[in-house]
């Protein structure tokens, strides 16, 4: 079955740039999406279609995709950005469901 | 504003059944595909099922295929998930999700605990 791979954890100091990667064989042809989930809260979409930001998401969140890897970048990470981040996408099989990455715990301190 | 309210969760024994509901408002439900996504305690997100806006197409995760059935009643603006032959590994918070071209909307989730 199709898999998306994320690093389990990323750690940065406040003000630094955090980069979270998501790798998958279908990403050259399929969009990547990114969710932020803070402890005890519902996931929030922060990036859709590789690089677009939903309304209300701060500009410090950006996304990119090249080859088999998508990247979520948080420029000037803030303490309130500490959360779990999940990428999701679809595969090339014609299956219409989503595949989530395993999630990355971002620590900002 | 978009509102999704799940219900029907609870404690159930392995092998038994449960039906979840998701009441939708604030958007044209009958024009929207809908998903169920779950999250086991302390674990990551897992997509469960999707249904087309008119119910004509459905798709499932391999882990639930043959046991779970997604359905909808557009006259009641309600999404359902019928869960049969429940296993302990189905224990999770279940969310219904509405997607648009530029955003996703999630309910607050309903907890299903499968335990003897």
Quick gist of this model?
The complex is a heterodimer of chains A (109) and B (116). Chain A is an all-beta fold and 109 residues long.
SSE blueprint:
The complex is a heterodimer of chains A (about 110) and B (about 120).
Chain A: E1 9-12, E2 18-23, E3 33-37, E4 44-47, E5 61-66, E6 69-74, E7 83-89, E8 99-100, E9 104-108
Parallel strand pairs in A: 1-9
Antiparallel strand pairs in A: 2-6, 3-4, 3-7, 5-6, 7-8, 7-9
Chain B: E1 3-7, E2 10-12, E3 18-25, E4 34-39, E5 45-51, E6 58-60, E7 68-73, E8 78-83, E9 92-99, E10 104-106, E11 110-114
Parallel strand pairs in B: 2-11
Antiparallel strand pairs in B: 1-3, 3-8, 4-5, 4-9, 5-6, 7-8, 9-10, 9-11
Can you offer a commentary on this structure?
Chain A has about 110 residues and is mostly beta strands. Helices cover about 0% and strands about 40% of the residues of chain A. Chain A has no helices and 9 strands. Chain A has strands at about 10, 20-25, 35, 45, 60-65, 70-75, 85-90, 100, 105-109. In chain A, strands 1, 3, 4, 7, 8 and 9 form a 6-stranded mixed sheet that branches. In chain A, strand 3 (about 35) and strand 4 (about 45) form a beta hairpin. Chain A starts with 8 loop residues before the first strand and ends with a strand. The mean pLDDT of chain A is about 95. With about 120 residues, chain B is an all-beta fold. Chain B is about 0% helix and about 50% strand. Chain B has strands at about 5, 10, 20-25, 35-40, 45-50, 60, 70-75, 80-85, 90-100, 105, 110-115. Chain B is globular, with a radius of gyration of 13 Å. The mean pLDDT of chain B is about 95. Classes of the chains: A mainly beta (about 110), B mainly beta (about 120). Chains A and B meet through strand 7 and strand 8 of A and strand 5 of B.
